[in-house]
Amino acid sequence: MDLIIRNAAPRDLPVILEIINHAILTSTAIYDYEIRTLEEQTAWFEKMIADGMPVIVAEFEGEVIGYGSYNIFRPKIGYKFSVEHSIYLNEKSRGIGVGGRLLGSLIQRAKESGLHTMIAGIDASNRGSIEFHKKYGFVEKGYLREVGYKFDQWLDLVFMQLILKED
How far apart are CA 64 and CA 99, in angstroms? Predict the structure, then answer.
């Protein structure tokens, strides 16, 4: 697969918006209820860039098929070396290596930025994502019962962690 991983650009925002809104409406990968507007997604993108946080896309044959980003884990100065990442793919691009390429790029960027740890917050029912993260060295570090609520059910959250070290 001739896949390109690159920095996202404003022209990518409509597709990023479509991908995230699909996840909001159909999954527990994100605990949001309401779809986002292009204005909200643009504001998010501009803040990420202003804060020096990466937003990257996976492009195949000229089409954006997924994106990833990370941001500071919690908004306190002591967490400045810890980030939490997110990766979202369109439905037809799952299970073919796109997520791994995005995650690999985010990990490399985090290392190059001098960050210490990367965290994933994953809905506990998403065994595929948990196993995916294990393949990349993430270790389960926490399990929080019934901290989310969506689709008329309580949701458990798994935290996984990767300590970023040079190989």
Answer: 13
Chain position carrying tokens 């001739």: 2
Residue 53 and residue 13: Cα distance in Å, rounded?
16
Rg (CA), the chain: 15
Span 1-27, pLDDT tens digits:
689 999 999 999 999 999 999 999 999
* pTM over the 0.90 mark: yes
Task: Count up the domains in the chain and report the number.
Answer: 1
Which CATH number belongs to the domain containing residue 85 in this structure? 3.40.630.30
SS3 per residue for 92-153? HHCCCCHHHHHHHHHHHHHHHCCCCEEEEEEECCCHHHHHHHHHCCCEEEEEEEEEEEECCE
**All residues at 6 or more sequence positions from 34 whose CB lies less than 8 Å from its CB, including other chains:** 24
Q: Which residue has the tokens 């799952």?
A: 94
